[in-house]
Amino acid sequence: MSAAPLRLGDLAIAPPLVLAPMAGITDRHYRRIIREVGGAGLVTMEFISSESLVRGHERTLNKLAFLQEERPLSIQIYGADAGRMSAAAEVVQEIGADVCDINMGCPANKVLKGCAGAALMGDLERAREIIARVRRRLTIPLTVKCRAGVDATRENFHELGRICEGEGVAAVALHPRTARQMFTGRAEWDRIARLKEAVRIPVVGNGDIETAADVLEMFRRTGCDAVMIGRASMKNPWIFRQAEALLAGRAPAEPTLAERRELVLRHFGRIVREEADRTHAMHRLKTFSGWYSHGLPNGRALRQRINELPDPDALLACVEGFFDALEGAPAAPQAATV
Fold first, then answer.
1. What's 73's domain CATH number?
2. Owning domain of residue 292
3. Catalytic residue IDs
């Protein structure tokens, strides 16, 4: 099958595949890796607190750094105050983002307690005010990411979708679980199809995409205009390139062990060289080592080993040694993978 570009105003997203915003994951290093692998039409920054952004917190401002090669780039903001959200959106536009996204889907308790994220689906009038004031402040496209509702008794993604359409939002992304579900159970893709029927603006589907074949299945089953991929990309950064191939009618290629090694060491090398905060760098390295090692022989042993390491340089050397051992090992009929 083929898929038309996702149209966000005058901006065409092709292929219509989007890297989801993930806190602590979609930083500048990871977004750059995804761009270099290829296949993603739009990448999204990890979500940014409107309060911290407006107050000019140094750590928040540092997160906003991006490279031209990441474009088109979306920056997602969250908050509960319409004035601060609109001011934050203006900052997003001023630093040169291609798209501004409002988070109305985060189910984390610390976000919900502040009446932000998915909590806004429990207060649609406040959600409407935020959307309207942000939209008036911007000339770049505005998008909204939401969930099915706060819980099963308050499933109101249709209403929020219509609010988005009425207030000039360029597209709405739906993760079809409720906030109460977090990431449990299955994402009900039929909700994406129902939202697509309810609004005229583009709909982006998200949730339970595990393989490139799932991308095609979501397009087929829901009629959505684009597919957003999150956690699956952490185990397989090639998923966008593989999905792009399938959309074009080509067979997707699996990365070789050499390609995996090169990507991991390139990513980790940048973190070690460019992150001044060694504790933060170590946390990032451990997080990605856990994801990247899934599916590799002796991956569990690597994950156990890195928890004992003292600093980023030692971790990088350990990972390099791990791949050296894999490349030097004789092929086994049934390698142990975890």
1. 3.20.20.70
2. 257-328
3. 106
Read off the pLDDT of residues 257-290 as tens digits, 9 standing for 90 and up: 999 999 999 999 999 999 888 998 999 999 999 8
Eight-class DSSP state of 337 = B
How far is residue 63's CA from residue 42's CA, in Å, rounded to a whole number? 18
Longest Cα–Cα distance in the chain: 63
The whole-angstrom separation of Cα 127 and Cα 125 is 5
Element (H, E) at 11: strand 11-13
Whether 336 maps to a domain, the answer reads no
Helix/strand/coil for 285: helix
Assess contact for 17 and 240: CB atoms under 8 A: yes
For the stretch 153-196, pLDDT in tens is: 889 999 999 999 999 999 999 999 998 998 888 999 999 999 99
pLDDT tens track for 119-162 = 999 999 999 999 999 999 999 999 999 999 998 888 999 999 99
Same domain, yes or no, for 224 and 266? no
Considering only CA atoms, which of 103, 129, 140 is closest in space to residue 118? 103
Distance CA 232, CA 186 (A): 15
Number of Cβ within a 10 Å radius of residue 154: 13
Judge whether 211 lies within some domain: yes
